[in-house]
């Protein structure tokens, strides 16, 4: 962990503790005690969301080397665990998942292209989910800042559209090619390697049915995350409807993504739950307890995911949790 990552983690943790300390802690602990093991069940409800995202990603992989759904779900589990708990700016999980794909026999161009496209579609599907949540909030009579909403849409579309344009233009190969010229041809192998990735990415964007399927399954995965919120609030004794759960999940995901530099969105996520709770009329103690229950998910789901990642990396030629590797190591086949 870098010094900057440590400082960000400590700062986020301090902010989270400060925000929670301003609440009625006796009421918060009472709610958590009442919920008990139910919050563990709510945390486990994240598994369907990971499985849906795994299926979405699998649609982008060649059928002959595509891992089965349990294996893909394990890779998504490790990717989310690394991104959720470590100071890697939501990038380290992608690197870890790429390595696991390679260990399962997926060739470099296919693994790289599928990951790049999956991440890009993830940005667009999350934007769509956020818009659905804001629309539902408006229908429920909530106050929506239309200027802020418009800016968010514009930034999201610009980011997603920019990534799509870069990938379709083969910019990666062009940049490496330019560097190869500066290096007097010493990067020729890397240049050809990057061009193969660009070609695979361009071909993948041409598979419109797979792209649409990936988007829709990802969107379903985002929406499935509302089950965690619904169950947590049910066990906390403050049940809400499906619409409210979708609104909370969509907005908290938007907050967490915006705070990607903070490990686990520490502080930002807690503040988000308190703000969203106030927006929907939740008791502050309930909103604070909900924020704590989301951290319980980190312990129940993501901490074991980090352990699975360490074990997978230490296993020669192995894959992610529970499935042996099927192909060559990390070198190109």
TrEMBL record:
Keyword Oxidoreductase: no
Transmembrane segment boundaries: 37-60, 108-138, 144-166, 210-236, 271-292
Entry keyword set: Cell membrane, Membrane, Transmembrane, Transmembrane helix
Domain of life the protein comes from: Bacteria
Chief site of localization: membrane
Membrane-protein topology: Multi-pass membrane protein
Signal peptide: none
GO cellular component term, pick one: plasma membrane
Location relative to the cell: Cell membrane
A Pfam family: LPG_synthase_TM
Keyword Transmembrane in annotation: yes
NCBIfam families: HpnL
Protein's name in the database: Lysylphosphatidylglycerol synthase domain-containing protein
Organism classification: Bacteria, Pseudomonadati, Pseudomonadota, Alphaproteobacteria, Acetobacterales
């Amino acid at each position: 962990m870098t010094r900057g990552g440590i400082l960000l983690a400590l700062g986020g943790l301090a902010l989270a503790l400060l925000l929670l300390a301003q609440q009625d802690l006796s009421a918060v602990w009472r709610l958590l005690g009442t919920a008990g093991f139910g919050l563990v069940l709510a945390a486990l409800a994240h598994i369907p969301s990971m499985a849906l995202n795994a299926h979405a990603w699998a649609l982008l992989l060649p059928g002959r080397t595509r891992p089965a759904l349990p294996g893909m779900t394990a890779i998504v589990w490790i990717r989310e665990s690394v991104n959720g708990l470590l100071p890697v700016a939501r990038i380290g999980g992608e690197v870890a998942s790429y390595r696991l794909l390679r260990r399962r026999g997926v060739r470099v161009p296919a693994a790289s292209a599928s990951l790049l496209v999956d991440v890009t579609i993830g940005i667009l599907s999350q934007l769509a989910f956020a818009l659905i949540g804001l629309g539902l909030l408006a229908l429920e009579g909530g106050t929506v800042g239309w200027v802020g909403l418009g800016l968010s849409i514009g930034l999201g579309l610009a980011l997603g559209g920019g990534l799509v344009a870069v990938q379709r233009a083969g910019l990666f190969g062009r940049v490496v090619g330019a560097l190869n010229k500066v290096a007097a041809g010493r990067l020729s192998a890397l240049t050809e390697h990057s061009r193969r990735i660009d070609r695979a990415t361009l071909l993948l964007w041409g598979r419109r049915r797979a792209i649409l399927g990936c988007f829709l399954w990802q969107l379903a995965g985002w929406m499935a995350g509302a089950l965690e919120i619904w169950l947590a609030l049910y066990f906390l004794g403050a049940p809400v409807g499906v619409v409210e759960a979708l609104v909370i999940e969509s907005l908290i995901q938007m907050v967490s993504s915006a705070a990607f530099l903070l490990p686990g969105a520490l502080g930002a996520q807690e503040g988000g739950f308190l703000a969203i709770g106030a927006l929907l009329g939740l008791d502050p103690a309930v909103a604070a307890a909900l924020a704590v229950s989301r951290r319980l998910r980190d312990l129940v789901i993501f901490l074991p995911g980090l352990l699975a990642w360490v074990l997978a990396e230490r296993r020669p030629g192995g894959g992610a949790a529970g499935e042996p590797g099927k192909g060559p190591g990390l070198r190109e086949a």
